[in-house]
């Protein structure tokens, strides 16, 4: 009897140990499955994560989106209509720059109020206008003229630097990035050719562009326009008291038809342009038209043609040609496209490949 009891006890212990080992093994298997699944999910998320490209001005943001496409997340710090000369940093600007994989800025002290923040970002920043291939006006001064983007061959340097940086950042997308860049560069070169043609309709004596601040030197250099302004290269500069009278006399002597407001300057600064018109009439009996406003340091709102660099450039050419020649600009400049017109063309090209 005792033997039978002992056998039963031993048998029970054996079953208990077996069940315990089995449960432990099953639990470890489940844990391994959970761990492996979590790791796989994290790896997939890491693989799908796109690099973050932070841009300063609206021009740079639009250009970077054309080049990066869906291979990077591109965000712009400045909103449409913002004056980059006077832009004050917001708390989240620093956070974005710290998180960024690449920072694209104009440089040449255009974004002077966030310059230290940009420089602290180290090697991941590119100051696009401070390229050796760009001949900067007043380069020997503390801050040269930063408005180089209005000369298309200089803006092409922006595209090339961005393309090369993105290829290094996302090597697996190199072919797509290069294809988008080539399409965009082709559009820019065509825009340049069309602009040269369009300005032939302006009589030579009328080829003078007078604006609120001196933002169009490089544009005038490229297309044979004399350029002048009430203010200097920065909207933070103060107008000299004699400037409106000087410009009023100049317009009368040259029989200039129109002078121009700008989009991203203050109302007070555009009022200085109005004072030129008033003085031309009162002192020199010369009639002037106020034209524009030209896009100078910022693009238009998203969702309209002028919300892209190419759209804003076309709009400026159209306004200048029609104001100074009293003739309609060529059909190329009358085209209306969606917010990022050039991007639409690029997408169509990629889908066709």
Q: How many beta-strand segments?
A: 8
Uncertain segments of ≥5 residues (pLDDT<50)? 5-11, 17-46, 337-353
- In whole angstroms, how far apart are the ends? 88 Å
State the helical fraction: 40-55%
Indicate the mean pLDDT.
Answer: 83
Amount of beta strand = 5-15%
Q: Please state the CA-atom Rg, rounded to the nearest Å.
A: 30 Å
Silhouette: globular
Count the helices. How many?
Answer: 11
Helix and strand sequence = HEHEHEHEHHEHEHEHEHH
Description:
By secondary structure, the protein is an alpha/beta fold. 51% of the residues lie in helices and 11% in strands. The protein has 11 helices and 8 strands. It has helices spanning 2-48, 58-68, 91-99, 115-119, 152-169, 174-198, 217-223, 243-254, 267-284, 309-325, 341-352; strands at residues 52-55, 73-76, 102-105, 125-127, 208-213, 226-231, 258-262, 289-294. Strands 2-1-3-4 form a 4-stranded parallel sheet, sandwiched between helices. A two-stranded parallel sheet has the order 5-6. The protein is globular, with a radius of gyration of 30 Å. The protein starts with a helix and ends with a helix.
């Amino acid at each position: 009897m005792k033997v039978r009891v002992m056998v039963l006890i031993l048998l029970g212990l054996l079953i208990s140990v077996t069940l315990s080992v089995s449960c432990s093994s099953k639990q470890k298997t489940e844990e391994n499955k959970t761990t492996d699944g979590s790791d796989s999910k994290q790896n997939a998320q890491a693989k799908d994560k796109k690099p973050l490209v932070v841009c300063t001005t609206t021009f740079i943001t639009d250009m970077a989106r054309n080049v990066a496409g869906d291979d990077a997340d591109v965000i712009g710090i400045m909103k449409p209509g913002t004056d980059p000369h006077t832009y004050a940093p917001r708390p989240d600007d620093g956070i974005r720059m710290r998180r960024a994989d690449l920072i694209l800025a104009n440089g040449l002290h255009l974004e002077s109020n966030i310059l230290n923040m940009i420089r602290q970002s180290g090697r991941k920043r590119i100051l696009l206008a401070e390229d050796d291939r760009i001949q900067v006006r007043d380069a020997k001064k503390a801050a040269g003229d930063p408005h180089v983007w209005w000369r298309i061959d200089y803006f092409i340097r922006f595209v090339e630097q961005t393309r090369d940086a993105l290829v290094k950042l996302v090597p697996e997308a190199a072919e797509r990035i290069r294809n988008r860049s080539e399409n965009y560069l082709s559009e820019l070169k065509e825009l340049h050719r069309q602009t040269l043609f369009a300005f032939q309709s302006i009589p030579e004596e009328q080829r003078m562009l007078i604006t609120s601040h001196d933002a169009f030197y490089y544009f005038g250099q490229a297309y044979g326009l004399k350029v002048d302004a009430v203010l200097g290269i920065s909207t933070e500069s103060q107008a000299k008291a004699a400037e409106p009278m000087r410009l009023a006399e100049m317009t009368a002597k040259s029989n200039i038809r129109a002078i121009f407001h700008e989009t991203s300057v203050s109302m007070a600064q555009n009022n200085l342009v109005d004072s030129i018109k008033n003085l031309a009439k009162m002192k020199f009996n010369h009639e002037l038209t106020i034209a524009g406003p030209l896009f100078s340091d910022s693009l238009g709102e998203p969702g309209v043609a002028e919300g892209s660099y190419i759209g804003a450039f076309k709009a400026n050419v159209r306004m200048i040609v029609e104001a100074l020649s009293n003739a309609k600009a060529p059909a190329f400049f009358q085209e209306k496209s969606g917010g990022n017109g050039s991007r639409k063309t690029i997408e169509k090209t990629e889908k066709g490949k």
